[in-house]
Design goal:
Distance between the termini: 14 Å
Number of domains: 1
CATH architecture: 3-Layer(aba) Sandwich
Oligomer: single chain
Strand content: 25-35%
């Protein structure tokens, strides 16, 4: 994907000049995949440019709170929301997720997060990019403990993670009584091993479903029908 100052989708655009993390496949996958059925209140933990919050607003009538700690990303998220058709339903908060979770007085039907996931890697030299990619400011334990507090009785958590991080995250979620109910393994193409996992957890146990999503066929930029169907409402090319 391009990293220009703007990224245009079918119903909204993302201004991303200052934000460390630009529009990427992970965010689009999560925004298109998360189950919004029946959700009236949604929390986006680590909103970045506001991409996922905007995708969920397009897909549902829910009210959405998007929490972002980085100054530049927060300002761009506010701008992107203000220019969208759903500005009246999305509130962007400038705060650490831990502080927001500690102070929140209401619960959410769905929490979504494309969380920073590097734990032991050397931090990126750019401060913004390090904050966005490394979880020293939002460890998995803090994300899960806050989510367990914030979810409504039948609420769900949806995240996207590198495959190698998923086992650890699932174990930590179980300790917070968040139960894995749906998983989609993501492969770049048929020859690759899965590199991402889309994970959905519920605050109440339910039957588990596992699926596989392949993004491209053998030829580069030859996208599979499943990927096009998932992202059709967003990408201009589909």
């Amino acid at each position: 994907m391009g990293r220009s100052n703007y990224f245009h989708f079918k119903q909204f655009s993302i201004f991303q000049q200052q934000s460390a993390m630009k529009v990427g496949t992970d965010g689009v996958l999560l925004g298109a995949w998360a189950d919004v059925a029946g959700a009236t209140s949604i929390l986006d933990a680590g909103a970045g440019t506001g991409l996922i919050a905007l995708m969920l607003a397009q897909r549902s009538p829910a009210t959405i709170v998007a929490v972002e700690i980085d100054d530049e990303a927060y300002r761009e998220a506010c701008y992107n929301v203000s220019q969208s058709p759903w500005a009246g339903r999305i509130e962007v908060r400038h705060a650490a997720f831990q502080d927001f979770a500690a102070q929140a007085t209401h619960q959410f039907d769905l929490v979504v997060s494309n969380p920073p996931f590097f734990e032991n890697d050397l931090p990126a030299p750019n401060r913004q990019r390090s904050t966005a990619r490394h979880n020293h400011l939002l460890p998995f334990d803090d994300l899960l403990a806050g989510t367990a507090k914030l979810l409504s009785p039948n609420g769900k958590l949806a995240v996207i993670l590198p495959s190698q991080q998923s086992v650890n995250f699932i174990q930590k979620a179980r300790e917070q009584k968040l139960y894995l109910v749906r998983s989609t393994l993501v492969k770049a193409n048929p020859a690759k091993t899965p590199h991402r996992c889309l994970l959905e957890f519920s605050s109440t146990p339910a039957p588990f479903r596992e699926e596989l999503l392949v993004i491209e066929n053998a030829r580069h930029h030859d996208y599979t029908e499943a990927y096009k169907q998932l992202t059709h409402d967003f990408y201009l090319a589909f």
